[in-house]
Amino acid sequence: MIDEALMSDLCGGVAIITGATGTLGRELAAELARLHLDLVLMGRDHRALEQLAKKLSDLGASSATPLAWDLADCAGLVDTVRQSAGQRPISVMVHCAAADHGGDDEASLQRELRINLHAPELLADMAFGDMQARGSGQIVLLSSNLALLGEERGTGYSRGKAGLERIARSMIAKNRQRKVHILTVVPGLIDSPLFRAGLARRPSWQRRFLKPRLTAAELAHQIVEKGMGRSGLLVMDPRHRALRWLADIVPGWQPRWPRI
């Protein structure tokens, strides 16, 4: 259970969730709805966001506001989110959105970096300012196992996700409020339609790929239960903690991660 004092600190503000219509984003939004928070749901599909907002209101969200936005467009992002929040301070910010096109061309690289790094940095800075002013809050940045270990192709995803931890560490270093928490989460593999489709197309991955340990719903619940009220780095899958340890102590070693 989340500490009642922490919940009291988070109430009265708005929870921003990017990538809210994604597999893990939907489940994290549902977890926050059950905490009776006011939500701003971000994604690119307005219709899907409206449907999700209705579901979350039924689950207990105090309010659920859909905000259709492509995070590749950083111009005006902060002002638009402020408007959707109704000028209320941000007490929770969860960044789930991600782009992994797998391309090495400059256009793909720049788009992935805007979505995976630049946009969440703008939103995190905005949220951090609110949290410092009100004396409490929680930022959760969803990273990736590829951020821990790196990859040879499509580096806009791994670079961007790795940068999230640097953003979090910088905020932790200048944080002067005991009740403001900044957490980077490496969720691990998710039992999602995308993952299962990848396995179905490439049977050889059954032998090469670490399989998901948890469903998205189970993972979201653990992230909220273990992560709220915490700062630092949270690697959910112990297998990925072991792989990071190997990558750190063996120069040049990299596991072969097939791409989905």
Explain what you see:
By secondary structure, the protein is α/β, with parallel strands linked by helices. The chain has a single domain (4-249), classed as Rossmann fold (3-Layer(aba) Sandwich), CATH 3.40.50.720. 50% of the residues lie in helices and 15% in strands. It contains eleven helices and seven strands. The chain has helices at 4-10, 23-33, 46-59, 77-84, 106-134, 145-149, 155-174, 193-201, 205-208, 216-227, 238-249, and strands at residues 14-18, 38-43, 63-68, 90-95, 137-142, 180-186, 232-235. Strands 3-2-1-4-5-6-7 form a seven-stranded parallel beta sheet, sandwiched between helices. Helix 2 (23-33) packs across helix 10 and helix 5 runs parallel beside helix 7 (155-174). The model has no long low-confidence stretch (mean pLDDT 85).
Task: Summarize the SSE layout with pairings.
Elements: H1 4-10, E1 14-18, H2 23-33, E2 38-43, H3 46-59, E3 63-68, H4 77-84, E4 90-95, H5 106-134, E5 137-142, H6 145-149, H7 155-174, E6 180-186, H8 193-201, H9 205-208, H10 216-227, E7 232-235, H11 238-249
Parallel strand pairs: 1-2, 1-4, 2-3, 4-5, 5-6, 6-7
- CATH topology name, in short, is Rossmann fold
N-to-C SSE string, H for helix and E for strand? HEHEHEHEHEHHEHHHEH
CATH evolutionary superfamily: NAD(P)-binding Rossmann-like Domain
Taking the sheet with the most strands, its summary is: 7 strands, parallel
Number of domains: 1
β-strand amount: 15-25%
